[in-house]
Specification:
The protein is an all-alpha fold. The protein is built from 4 helices and no strands. The longest helix is centred in the middle third of the chain and has 39 residues. Belongs to the peptidase A24 family.
């Protein structure tokens, strides 16, 4: 249920260096993605009164540097969908109780990996399906 700051702190300079060497297009997308990841989860934390932890917020800020603005929003959506499907499954099979907390970090990581490798394809598919 905890995402250690040591792990996040280890990857922060690596991801910043990666984006300085190979910036996203537009160049400010990494910065906007980091702020969006932090701000959106901060609002969720405040509204849920601690239902989600600050580690998730810091992880999304870190992932915003890597993914950029569009893809960090996609990763948030996919992680919520994965978490909802798994959570409903755990409830249906009575693995957890309704009030029992479930860690969100694994769903964030899985969604971020999916977004990193297939994000452009998913975004193009989504916008093409709207037309």
């Amino acid at each position: 249920m905890l995402i250690p700051n040591k792990i996040l702190g280890f990857f922060l300079p690596l991801f910043i260096t990666m984006r300085v060497i190979q910036p996203l297009e537009p160049w400010w997308s990494s910065i906007a993605g980091a702020f969006a990841g932090i701000l959106i989860l901060a609002v969720i934390i405040l509204m849920s009164r601690g239902g989600m932890g600050a580690g998730d917020m810091k992880l999304f800020g870190l992932l915003g540097i890597v993914l950029g603005l569009e893809k960090v929003l996609l990763a948030l959506f996919i992680s919520c969908m994965i978490g909802a499907v798994v959570g409903i499954g755990l409830l249906l099979f009575k693995v957890i109780d309704r009030k029992q907390p479930v860690p969100f970090g694994p769903y964030i990581v899985v969604a971020s990996v999916i977004t990193y490798f297939f994000g452009d394809t998913l975004i193009i598919w989504y916008f093409n399906s709207l037309m």
